[in-house]
Design a protein that fits this description.
27 strands, mainly beta
Length: about 300
């Protein structure tokens, strides 16, 4: 068997759906319905470009200059986005995750973070990818604190929804009533603003055109089931995304700075427990006490 750069490839199938999850980072490398891609994918022998399908733990998005304070102690994370002087997308996306359970339609993978100078905490995480012939993909992430003291926690994921054609002619509908302004280093400035009357009001759905978006939304409208939903519709088909109440934030990115052959062909649709820079600002930051757990789910389907 080939020794792929992204490690073991876990293939799942259920009815018309097929998914591939990688050992590296427990990332979603492929998801298709009747052979049509629902997310932007990449080769098993290359690193995930532009965070394609990666889990973002123990923080999504950015930490301003990698600096934060927790329980009175200052911490400095490695600057994994040096061009903007930020720490970005957590610590587990390049780690090897171990299989816990595998069935034809399901895989469960686990990863343990031990203390480091920037994040001196113990964190255990486990993710389940499950396919259903009718409902598509469900991702459930469980974080647990096995350590002796409380820790700061946030999570997210970075799939890019696609309908197999450029975004410009696609209709995007998303449920955010508030958006978070950011500065030129992508760090929040001020409080979230009402989308009404702004270019970010996509609640009713509209053709995206050449609009560029890389912004976090909150105030998510939810159905009776507690789920918020996004839909990307092209000329032939639609791809939908949902997230549960464990993630009150949603980053939307129009893939303007990804590999040229994939540029603006997918919509980054990132469920997040907190906004960018939550570690430093404390906004919606989760305090995970010893022995405590936090669980969140989201999913992707055709139509």
């Amino acid at each position: 068997m080939a020794d792929f750069l992204t490690g073991e490839q876990y293939e799942l199938t259920a009815g018309p759906y097929r998914a591939v999850v990688t050992e590296e980072g427990a990332g979603l490398r492929e998801l298709t319905h009747d052979g049509e891609p629902l997310v932007l994918s990449y080769d098993a022998d290359e690193p995930a470009p532009a965070a394609f399908g990666q889990l973002l733990i123990p923080w999504p998005n950015r930490v301003d200059r990698g600096r934060y304070t927790f329980d009175g102690r200052d911490h400095q994370l490695d600057l994994s986005e040096p061009e903007l002087d930020n720490a970005i997308h957590g610590l587990t996306r390049w780690a090897a995750w171990s299989p816990v359970e595998q069935r034809p339609d399901t895989v469960v993978l686990a990863c343990s973070l031990h203390g480091s100078t920037g994040y001196p905490f113990r964190l255990d995480v486990q993710v389940e990818y499950r396919l259903d012939a009718e409902d598509g993909l469900t991702v459930t992430l469980l974080a647990a604190n096995p350590g002796s003291r409380a820790l700061p926690y946030a999570h997210g994921m970075h799939p890019y929804l696609t309908v197999g054609e450029p975004l410009d002619a696609c209709t995007v509908r998303l449920p955010g009533s508030l958006y978070q302004p950011v500065d030129d280093r992508m760090i929040p400035i001020g409080a979230p603003k009402d989308v009404a009357g702004s270019e970010y009001d996509l609640r009713a759905g509209r053709v995206l055109g050449d609009q560029k978006i890389d912004i976090a939304f909150t105030g998510l409208a939810r159905g009776a089931d507690g789920l918020a939903r996004v839909r990307l519709t092209g000329s032939r088909r639609s791809t939908s995304f949902w997230l549960d109440q464990a993630q009150p934030w949603l980053e939307i990115y129009t893939a303007d700075q990804v590999p040229p052959d994939q540029r603006r062909r997918g919509l980054g649709c990132e469920p997040m427990t907190g906004p960018p820079n939550a570690f430093a600002s404390g906004v919606d930051l989760i305090r995970l006490e010893p022995g405590a757990e936090y669980r969140g789910s989201w999913g992707i389907a055709a139509g």
